[in-house]
Amino acid sequence: MTAATAQGPNAAELRADARRERLVLGALAAPGLLLIGVVALAPIAWLFWLSVRKGDSYTLEHYARLLHSSYAYSLQTTFELTFLVTAICALLGYPLAYLIAQARQRTAAILLLFVLFPVWTSLLVRCYAWLVLLQRRGLVNTWLADAGLIDLPLRLVHNFTGTTIGMVHIMLPFMVLPLYATMRAIDRDYVRAAANLGATPSQAFRHVYVPLSLPGLAAGIIIVFILCLGFYVTPALLGGGRVMTWSMQIERNVTYHSDWGAASALGVVLLAMALAIFWAVGRVIGFNRILGGR
Amino acid sequence: MGEEQRRDGEALRRVHAALNHGRTAVPARAPGRPRHIRTREAAIGEASGGERGSGLPISITGIGKAYGAFKALDDVSLDVASGEFLTLLGPSGSGKTTLLMVLAGFQRPDCGRIRFGDDDVTLAPPHRRGVGMVFQNYALFPHMDVAGNLGYPLRLRGLGRSEIEERVRRALDMVQLSGLGARQVDQLSGGQRQRVALARAIIFEPRILLMDEPLSALDKKLREEMQIEVRRLHRRLGMTTVYVTHDQREALTMSDRVAVIDKGRFRQVGGPREIYERPGSRFIAEFIGESSFLPVELRGCEAWAGGARLMLSGGVPAMASPLLVLRPEKLRVLAPGEDGAGLNVLRGRVDELVYQGESTLFYVELPGGARIAARQAASASAPALPGVGGEVALALAPADTILVPDDA
Lengths: 294, 408
Fold this sequence. Notes:
heterodimer; A: two-stranded antiparallel sheet; flat; B: six-stranded mixed beta sheet
C-alpha cells in the first residue's frame, strides 16, 4: 500500500477518493450479501441449533437416532441413486458437450437450446410426463410390445429404475452446461500441437483434451451430485414409495411427526455430505480450477 | 548430397511402412510401456545427429484451398531445399497460415500435392508427418510442467524415462532455460514460453520445422533477440524451416529465401536482398520496406520521371505503366555545388521534416506535385538539410533505380 504513505500535493484528496470508491462498491454489494446472510447462513445456523436441542437442553439424541436401520437404508438408497445418476449424466453428458463444443456456432446454439429446453419446463410436468411414458401401459411398453421385443410390460416406473431415468433427464443439463463452457474454452491448438508432436487422435484426446476438460467435468459432477443428494420431487413421484431417499425422511419427520429436531439432524448430515463431496473433488482437481480460476 | 537424400528417403519409407502396418517394425517393447508410435526420428534421428543438412526438402505442387468463394490458396507451387530457411511473408488473410496448416496436416487442401523428401504426405494425418511446429500462441499444455511438455513427444515415441530426462535437459540447455523443467507453464514469462515452445518443436529432432508467427507476441527487443536465436538454432540443427510472418523486417533478418504471398498466390520468391533491392512489382516494393513511387514516362528508349531523364543500369524494361521505386535511404542529399554526375537527380522543396533519432525522415515535393520520402542518417558528415520550404537535390544511383509494373 504505497498510496497510504504517499505524501505531496493532493495525496490526501486522492486517498479519500479511493476510499469513497471502495465504499460505493461495498454498498452496491450489500443487498446481495445481506440476502445471502438472511436466506442462507442464518437458516443453516438455526438448523444446526435445532438439531442439537431437545426441550431446553442440548442433546445428540437426534443424531443417535440416525443410526437406526431405516435411516441407514435410506442413506444407502440416496447414495446409490446419486452415484448412479451422476455417473450416467457424466457418461451421457461428456460426449454431448463435446459434440456441442465441436459444432459450429449456429449449430451449437441450437443444440444447447435442446439441452436447456427441459430446464424451462416445470419439474412436476416432466415427472408426470415420464410417468405417462414409463407406466405399465405407457408409450414405451406399448412400443416395445408392438415391436415384439417384450411379452410382458417392463417395470419401468414406481421403482428405482424409473427414479433414475427421471433424475438423469432432469440433471443432464447441469452436467452439460459446465462441461460445454470448459470445452468451448479449450484452444484447438492444444489438440493440434499434440497431433503435431506425434499423438494419434485418440492419444491427443486422452492426453490433452480430457485433462483440460476435467474442471468442467468436476464442476458438473459436483452440481449433479449435490442436487441429487437432496432431491425430493422425482423420487417421490417416480419412486412410487419404494425409493426412500434422505430428503423424503426429512419430509416425513416434519409433516408426520412434527419432529424438527430429527429433520434438522438429517439436514445437517446432508449438508455435511455435500461439503465432503465438494472437498473430495476439490482435492483431486484443485479448488481454484473448479471455481473458475484458470 | 544425393546419396544422403536417397538414404533418408529410404529410412522414411521404412518408417512409414512401420506406421502403416500395425507397428510391426517396432523393436522389442517392454511390457506395460506405453504404446508408441514409430517415426522417422526414432529410426534415423540418431544417425543424422542433428548435423547441418539433415533437413528434408519440401515440394509443394499446385496446392489450392478455397473457403466458399474465397480462395485462401490459389494454385501454389514451391520447392524448399533441404536445410533452407524459407519465410512466408504476407499481409493477414494472404494465405500464409493456411499454407502452413496444409504443410502440418491440419488443413486438407482442395487440390495439389505436398512431398517431404521422396514421400507424398498430402494424405498423411498430422501425427504421421513428423514435423516440428511452433504455434503462434505456443500451445504449451497448461496441465503439464515444462519438462512434461518437452518430454511429451518423446513419451509418444516410447523412449525410456532416463533418456527422456536426458534429452529434456539437453533441450532446456539449448534454449537457455536450464533447470526450469519443473516450472508450470503459467509461471513462465512470454520469452520463456517461446523458448519452451521452440524446444518442444525440435526435441524429437524433426527434419522439418514449421513456425507460425512465433515471435509476434513478444516485445520488440525480445523479438529481435529471439530472431537471432532462432537463426542460430537453425544453423546448428539444419532442419528445413518454413516460417510464417507478416513482419517484413523479421523476414529479411531471418530467411535464406522469402516467399511473398498475397491473395493466395506467391508474388515473388527470392533471397532477402533480391526481394528488397529488386522488387518485382509495386506490391512487393510497398509491402517490403518503405517506398515512394513516381510514374515513369517512356519516350522511345528513354525513361523520364520527376522531370528528369533516368539512367538505368539495365536499360528500359518493357512494361505498360512503369513506376520508379524510391527507397528513402537510397536517396542522398547532394551538397551545394555537387553536380551529381552519373546519378539520377530529383529536385524539389522540403515539405516536412521528422526527426527520428538515428535518422531524419523528410518529404520532398517535386515540381509536378508528387511527394516522395527520403531519409538521411544522423551524421555530422552529411550535408545539412534545408528547413521546410528549402530547395533540395536528391541523388539516386542508377543501380538503385528500379522500375516496377504498377500492380496495386
